Amino acid sequence: MSTTAEQNNSLSVPDANGHFGIHGGRFVSETLMGALEELEALYERLSKDPEFQAEFDKDLAHYVGRPSPLYHAERLSAHCGGGQIWLKREDLNHTGAHKVNNTIGQALLAKYMGKPRVIAETGAGQHGVASATVAARLGLECKVYMGEEDVRRQALNVYRMRLLGAEVIPVTSGTRTLKDAMNEAMRDWVTNVDNTYYIIGTAAGPHPYPKLVRDFQAVIGRETKHQSMAQIGRLPDAVVACVGGGSNAIGMFYPFMDNTETRMIGVEAGGFGLETGQHAAPLTAGRPGVLHGMRTYLMEDDAGQILGTHSVSAGLDYPGVGPEHSYLKDIGRAEYVAATDDEAMDAFRKLTQIEGIMPALESAHAVAYAMKMAKEMSPDQVIVVNLSGRGDKDIHTVAQIDGIEM
Amino acid sequence: MNRIEARFNQLKADGRKAIIPYVTAGDSEPAVTVPLMHALVEAGADVIELGVPFSDPMADGPVIQLACERSLVHGTRLLDVLDMVAEFRQQDADTPVVLMGYLNPVEAIGYENFAQRAKAAGVDGVLTVDLPPVESEGLMAALKAEGLDIIFLISPTTSPVRRKAICEQGSGYLYYVSVKGVTGSKALNVDEVATYITDMRHDTDLPLCVGFGIRDGEAAAAVCQVADGAIIGSVLVNQIAELSDRPQEIPAAVAAIIKDMRTAVDAA
Predict the structure, then answer these.
(1) Does an H or E element contain A322, and which?
(2) Confidence check: pLDDT of A3 > 70
(3) Contacts of residue B134 in chain A, CB cutoff 8 Å?
(4) Which residues contact A345 (CB under 8 A, 6 or more apart)?
(5) Is B49 a catalytic site residue?
(6) Which 3 state secondary structure label does DSSP give B207?
(7) For chain A, N or C: smaller number of CB within 10 Å?
């Protein structure tokens, strides 16, 4: 199962310069152009190299534990009344989220490039943990940039990264969240470009990152298609995934691109509600601009300054989004909606209590919207939710909301 | 002939090198900027690079990031920066002004609109840090239509193929980033810079100016042995930061640094 073959996709984006329609591209300082060209050339070669693909697939099978199950959440479906809700269990992957699919792939790229040091940005800490994990396994030095605010919110993951031997750098500039962590990681990369590989955690940033992250994550959608045929006998009516930067969503969507009978729905973080402005929903409520090396939908003011965001989930707390999602919105192939903090919290509790599955707060946004959709659907209709991560890391946040000191 | 070309022609005729200070507009408060620009010219600046503050200055170090934050606290917008340039132009018709910043504030008001307003304000060139030539067709056309220069960066990691393209598409002058890193990160290596600049002369007749890591007169003088000018940023912005609670002292203190650089470069 290779990363590029059998994608069943006639859209053929990005183009040679990394453009998805008007989105994407490579908007970086000249200092990074050389490194990006080198990465692009290497990836072009390795993505067609059977040996590299075999190594990637082997790691996914025996280190990550793939394929992840496709699970029919029958009691949750019954509770909602209406359509069937199925869960793609990325939460069962090693390290607890879909993030590791990508870090396995990019760590292999770092290895092929002979870079002894990797860096990463992280929001919720899942990508940081996944990066620290693969770095430990390959004996690479690892530094993870994380907004100070997120370091506080995600203390458990910070300690996990440190146990794995990574250095976690709290970022105190700007809004002290994911976007600022990405700024700092870029600065590190510019400075140490000779010996350092930057593992970007989502399908965003300058070309070729959105493409290669998508390709590494597309295993999610490919498995879902095979499993749907085997377990349900047909493809789902809809696939639903949360969207921060959008890597779990694009990984689910990409193999479905030509299966237009399957709706693709991305759920952004509605925070306190879109009407409050306190959210992280650029596709639903933003406009195109340029940040972090790409043109994409952004949350910005009318002078072009990037706005602070709010979400209960650190992993969705980002003012931009991967450029392929912006393109899918523009061409209408995917739909983008938002779920509020409260809706996500409610879904977190329901899934925990009814199915015994504790989702990450990020993934709970997708569950929340699927529960809403299911009510409007008939019992023979099927929604697959990408359950992108598990909720262990969020227990502290949930306890705090419940007024419990831990 | 625009002001940038006129200025470099004059410098060449005089056998002198350009001193190019960078300051962030609106740092530490908007009222400082225009008096500061005049003080810089008085101290010997040949071109002024005026930074447009951006919330996420990814290619800059903490010094410039904090300068942006100090300016943005006052709500400084790109249009406010253009007003500052227009005010500067009321008393200075000759010193070229180059806006340096990131693409998004420009996108927010539209390329043509920006180019027309920048021209009207008296801007001469635009350097957009996160806009490499391959993505710059639209902005370049808009700037060209108004006779404004588009200034590009070249770095030690720029491949020969891309360097050639940049030399062909750039105008005004070329900005050689002398270190691998962000602004204000480390001191430059003069020998490496000399080798690169000498080599680059084969690709272009444009003036070649060097920035990043120039902290004192000695470094500026050394760079100007081979380059056509030295761009000085973080050391000035640090001085502004130190005086942010006494903004009235900023113009004189920052100008004093440029005066020392001028003296050192002219003496070399």
Answers:
(1) none
(2) no
(3) 17, 26
(4) A312, A361, A364, A398, A401
(5) yes
(6) coil
(7) C
